[in-house]
Amino acid sequence: MFWPMFAVAAGFLGLSVLGVFAVRVFVEARRLGLQVSESAHRINRAAEDLERAAVSATRSAESL
């Protein structure tokens, strides 16, 4: 009777450990997704700023 109970307890413990790791992976993947999204917004803002600066430089060059 000891070995079947031990096997059930070990199986439950193994599933619990896997569950904890799954939650940690989910949380880290979500954080990574938020960081990627924020980086994309920053890149878009920088691209818009660069475009505005290029238009301004073109106008300045044309006026010369």
From TrEMBL:
Domain of life according to the entry: Bacteria
Protein name: Uncharacterized protein
Origin species: Streptomyces colonosanans
